[in-house]
Design a protein that fits this description.
The chain is of the alpha+beta class and about 325 residues long. It has 7 helices and 20 strands. It folds into 2 domains: about 40-190, Jelly Rolls, CATH 2.60.120; about 200-325, Jelly Rolls (Sandwich). Helix content is about 20%, strand content about 35%.
Length: about 325
Amino acid sequence: MAQHQQQESIGATLRANNLTPLWEIFRDVVPPQPIPACEPVVWHYDTVRPLLLQMGQEISAEEAERRVLILSNPGVEGFSATRTLFAGLQLLLPGEVASCHRHSQAALRFVVEGEGAYTSVDGERIDMHRGDLILTPSFTWHDHAKSGEGPMIWLDGLDVPIVNYFGSTFMESYPESEPRLTPSDETTKGMNTPGLRYPYEKTHAALEAMVAAQSCDPHLGVKMQYINPQTGGHVLPTMACFLQHLPAAFAGQNMRSTDASINFVVAGTGRVWIGETCLEWGPDDVFVLPNWSWYRFEVDSQAEIFSYSDRAAQENLGLYREEKSAV
């Protein structure tokens, strides 16, 4: 009894001095292997698109700053698709302009549907077409505009949770009194790729060439990495991007990796098994593969999937690992 009271007294003293005994929580702080930090989830485009268009009638691009429906993972605190990455679908309607701003977070856009829109990055105009990957490196000025008919929708990917975790977030709106930006060489500096647009016709052709030239991996099909042409590394310091081919009737083997990925279905139908959970997907759907969770693909019709993850950050820090099963 006396020993118990003494331990309680010591514990109270430690807490009062903002101290915690590591030996009591060691396995929680340093677990033997990664713990999945989000849930497997799918957002079906047929469900999300009508809601996004409805929001287009409810709030203007000017009022919203960015008219985006966030893809919120139910297993993550806050508003993000994984613990480290944000995903959302953004809508721009004819005649609208999304105001110019910049922020610490890096962003990518993968175009889902529409024509007649562009984004500008540090004054460089970049036209948007379906399947294009467009980059907005950290702290570069950017805005969006839409002309012509019909909606313009794209998938936004940002490293918001990473930057916020570090406590290094800054955001500025472009002064209305200042003249419109002109192109600069700002985005070619540092760790960012000098190429801001990866046009789909070229990336798709490159993937098809890989499919013709190499055998199909039993876990991933054929998976191509978007690269920084100057370094051969990832396109952004925090985010890695990939385009993946899965042939019809593909029955993949299990694998897992330390990065959680956000996946957009460019074409095809199928499903992915994450443990005992099955996510059915089709064109324009978005799904999440959690970190360190066994998953395998089953494909009905030939599929092409764009994905991004925090693998770039993990590799830069020497943290990335993966495992592949023989079944």
